[in-house]
Amino acid sequence: MKKANAIVIFIITILIISINTPVFATENYSIELKPSKQSLIEGDKIILEFYITDIVVNPGIGAVYGELVYDEKVFEKVRQEDFIQSEGWEMPIYNDVNEAEGRWFLLREQGDLITEDSILFKLEMKVLDKVISQDTQIKVCAISASTAEQDVYTKDAILDLSVEGTLVPTQNITLVLFGVTVIAIIIIIVLVIKHKQ
Fold first, then answer.
1. What is the domain range of residue 188?
2. Which of 75, 116, 157, 195 has its CA 20 to 30 A from that of 103?
3. Which of 88, 84, 83 has the alpha carbon at shortest distance from 63?
4. Half-sphere exposure at residue 47, Cβ-oriented, CA atoms within 13 angstroms
């Protein structure tokens, strides 16, 4: 009897844990970022399209959440007004003011669920007016989508970009100053030696 009770308790515990555990799977859908251009220069504006693709979740997806991560030494701060609504979706809600900065979410406009690829929204970002030439990334992390029955997670979306700037990295300035100092010392030594002769 004790063994049967232990088995029943074990099965109930497993069921409770599995009901409350979100589904983690990368094959249920993907988030992709498509830029209006890959190579940027100082002051450039770029439009990013946020796509949801490869949806195999039933009965479909009605809400999407994520966190936008980018280098604030390359791009101006993103604000709510930088988002552009896409057909079938409500305007994304973006947190640009507190410790949850970067988090966004959006819902289907009619409360329906989608099963086909869709543009979630667009985002306009601007490169700072003065930057160092570098490669940079824009990421969407902590992505989850709601099917009305469960939250389904997927891998981060990462976009690689290159930025051409006119600022010189600090380490290069240090090397240049060091080189100029060494040359100045050599010239002084040569002048002192010539003067003694």
1. 172-197
2. 116
3. 88
4. 8
Q: Give the separation between CA 161 and CA 12, rounded to whole angstroms.
A: 50
Same domain? For 83 and 180 the reply is no
**Which CATH number covers residue 98?**
2.60.40.680
In this prediction the pTM is 0.72
Q: What is the rounded CA–CA span in Å between residue 14 and residue 31?
A: 31
Q: How far apart are CA 181 and CA 172, in angstroms?
A: 14
Helix runs in the chain, H state only: 2-19, 170-196
Distance of CA 102 to the CA centre of its chain: 9
- Do both 36 and 108 map to the same domain? yes
Q: Which residues contact 138 (CB under 8 A, 6 or more apart)?
A: 33, 48, 68, 69, 70, 75, 125, 158, 159, 161
| Phi, psi for residue 155 in degrees, rounded to 5 | -70, 160
Domain presence at residue 128? yes
Residues in contact with 196: Cβ distance below 8 Å, sequence separation at least 6, in sequence order: none
Query: Can you tell me the distance from the alpha carbon of 74 to that of 137, in angstroms, rounded to the nearest whole number?
Result: 10
- Single out the residue of 45, 100, 42, 41 nearest to residue 68, CA to CA: 100
Q: Tell whether 197 is covered by a domain.
A: yes
In a domain, 125, yes or no: yes
Q: How many structural domains compose the chain? A: 2
In this predicted structure, the answer to whether residue 24 has a pLDDT above a threshold of 60 is no
